Amino acid sequence: MVNGWTVPGFTHATDLGGGTAGRVVLAVDDLTQTKVAIKYLDSRLDSDEVFLSRFRMTARRLSQIEDPNVVDLFDLVESPQGTAVVMERVDGVTLRRILAAQGPTGPLAALSAFGGVLLGLAAAHDADVAHGALRPANVLVDASGNARLTDFGMAPSGDAAQGGPAYAAPELWGGAPPSAPADLYAATAVFFECLTGSPPFTGRSLAKAHREAPVPVESVPGPLRDLIAQGLAKEPEKRPASAADFLEAVETAAVAAYGPSWEAQGRERLTELARQAAEAPEPPPAKAAKAASRGAAAAPAKRSRTKPLVAAAATIVIVGGVAGAAIAMRGGEDTPPATPATSGSPSPVPTVDPALAQASALADKVEAAVDRPAGAAFTFRRSGCCGTANANGSLALQADAPASYQMTVQGSGGTRKAGRSVLLKDTTWLRAGGRWRSVDFDPRARGYAGLAAQIREGSAVANVPALLRNSATFTANGGAHQGTAPLDRLAQVANVGDLFGDLAKRTGATEVTYTVHLDKQSRPTRVTFRAAGPERNQTYTSTYSRWGAKVSIGAPR
Q1: Residue 508 has what DSSP assignment?
Q2: Contact criterion met (CB below 8 Å) for 123 and 95
Q3: How far is it, in rounded angstroms, from Cα 405 to Cα 421?
Q4: What pLDDT, on the 0 to 100 scale, is given for residue 284?
Q5: Which residues in 442-479 are b (16+ Cβ under 10 Å) and which e?
Q6: CA dist., res. 55 & res. 156, Å (int)
Q7: Which DSSP state fits 332?
């Protein structure tokens, strides 16, 4: 029991530790025998009605987010004995533990972690949720090297700066509430610590340092100093406009400094560091308690996936347990053994790369999972040499027809103002001057008509099996399926070839690198692919959520 009670329907297995926010245990669902992590909130939080009210609201919003870099959740359980959060247990270690065990991560691993943090913040901020107390203890690195945000909204009511004083933006020390700009400041401070081994400001007068001390950019590698200066700007309005904008600047700086393969190398290094940290002895309890008393670290946390909520959604993540190493996809078990020749010289037996066979089989699963009318919400982002584009909305997969879309789109140049569009088969509908007008579907058209068509091509679910089936290399690192695919082969694939052929011409690249995340039904949740040529590159990122939702898209009136 914890605090005199146990969440009904679960049996405690192991104590995973605790901190200022509460106690964490590994438990087993009595009905399904599934292992979960349960966090029992500290009585100080449980008796803070202002905190609980805000926490419930934050949780409801977060329950709508399905993003690989934001923790999902099971249940928030409130009872007369206390409040607890039930989450799926995922092996991983906190960035705090990695830094304690290894010291500075190096620039590539730091950039990889920073990029994951910004992706998570972008998803949360789109849902009008600020983290409020971001610090290394709230960044979980899983077995695939993914950085995942935990413990949204867990700062007690009152002074928000005390939720993580070493990472708190100047305005928080003046009593301002948590905000997106403050989250970007904290994320940059965490990035700084990954690069140097310590936060940008230390000592007793943290409030004064955050408000007045010069940003110590000279402590980080030269190519990354501008990123640090932007994120740690004293005035919120001088920081990047959004997490998505900041991520674009990070990707541009990383490619310029470390080449187009920086992301894969950084993820590999971060995965290695997580594995080494997991194998290292646990930090002494005395030091952990001391850190908690200073407010510099939170209780260990663990990542979860969504389930229907019992009372209200919650976003606490339990970090504890061990991070596994990235594992290359294997598929030889299903390959029949070669049959020896019965006479004469043995005949050569064709060999099939087991990993590529697995990629092809995975492509079949994806096609089967979405080969029927289905709806989903989506977001899309394109960045790089050939114009930016952003979109969000919903799509409806149709039998024997291109997917229908209704979305808000925004690009560069003359399409910077957000506009609405609907795509039905070969027609694009645009909202302009208070009225809808229709034009032919044409990705090469100018303005919003071309932009909307390009977004449908770039975010098409059909891109996923095309990438998998035409892979030249393929690995599976936990939930992330990664590989490369030659552009000349992709350009020959029906229905998606135009996109990849055009991508090859624009960038001069010969292949794309990709990462695909799927849900338990083999439906895509996040897809990123990147073409990096000698001098130009382009990146496409699409996320999908709420698969199975009833989406009806018709011609607007």
Answers
A1: -
A2: no
A3: 8
A4: 58
A5: ebebeebbbbbbbbbbbbbbbbbbbbbbbbeebbbbbb
A6: 9
A7: G
**3-state DSSP assignment of residue 381:** strand
Residue among 139, 136, 163 at smallest CA distance from 149:
139
Q: pLDDT class for 204, splitting at 50, 70, 90?
A: confident
The sheet carrying 10-19 orders its strands as 10-19, 22-29, 35-41, 82-88, 75-79
Crossing angle of the two packed helices 180-196 and 243-258, in degrees rounded to 10: 30
| Residue 145: other Cβ atoms inside 10 A | 27
pTM (2 decimals)?
0.60
Give the type of residue at 443: P
Per-residue pLDDT for 301 more than 60? no
In sequence order, which residues have a C-beta less than 8 Å from that of residue 22 and are 6 or more positions away? 39, 40, 41, 42, 45, 299, 316
Helix axes 107-126, 180-196, angle to 10 degrees: 170
The burial of 78, by beta-carbon neighbours within 10 Å (0-12 exposed, 13-18 middle, 19 or more buried), is given as: middle
Residue 138 main-chain phi, psi, to 5 deg: -105, 15
Radius of gyration from C-alpha coordinates of the chain: 24
Distance CA 406, CA 230 (A): 35
Q: Are 484 and 467 in contact, with CB atoms under 8 Å apart?
A: no
* Dist. CA 347–CA 362, nearest whole Å: 31
Return d(Cα 256, Cα 248) in angstroms, integer.
12
Instruction: Give, in order, the Cα–Cα distances in Å from 241 to each of 173, 264, 318, 374.
Output: 21, 27, 31, 35
Tell me, what DSSP letter sits at residue 328? -
pLDDT at 378 over 70: yes
- Which string of DSSP letters, residue by residue, matches 363-425? HHHHHHHHSS-EEEEEEEEEEETT--EEEEEEEEEETTEEEEEEEEEEESGGG-S-EEEEEET
- CA distance linking residue 178 with residue 474, whole number of Å: 41
For residue 167 the two structure tokens come to 């990472």
How would DSSP label each residue in 173-234? HTTPPP-HHHHHHHHHHHHHHHHHSS-S--SS-HHHHHHHSPP-GGGS-GGGHHHHHHHT-S
- What token pair was written down for 319? 């970090």
Which residues 6+ apart lie within 8 Å of 207 measured at CB? 161, 173
pLDDT at site 316: 33
d(CA 542, CA 528): 7
Rounded-to-integer distance, Cα 165 and Cα 199, Å: 10
CA dihedral 454, 459, 464, 466 (to 10 degrees): -10
The domains found in the chain, sorted by start residue, are 96-132+158-280 (1.10.510.10), 357-545 (2.50.20.20)
Q: Are 428 and 453 in contact (CB under 8 A)?
A: yes
What percent of the chain clears pLDDT 90, i.e. is strictly above it?
40
Among 155-164, 165-174, 175-184, 544-553, the range scoring the smallest mean pLDDT is 155-164
Q: At 99, which helix (H) or strand (E)?
A: helix 95-102
- Would you call 522 helix, strand, or coil by DSSP? coil
| Length reported for the chain | 557
CA distances from 217 to 196, 199, 230, 238, 242 (A): 11, 12, 10, 16, 21
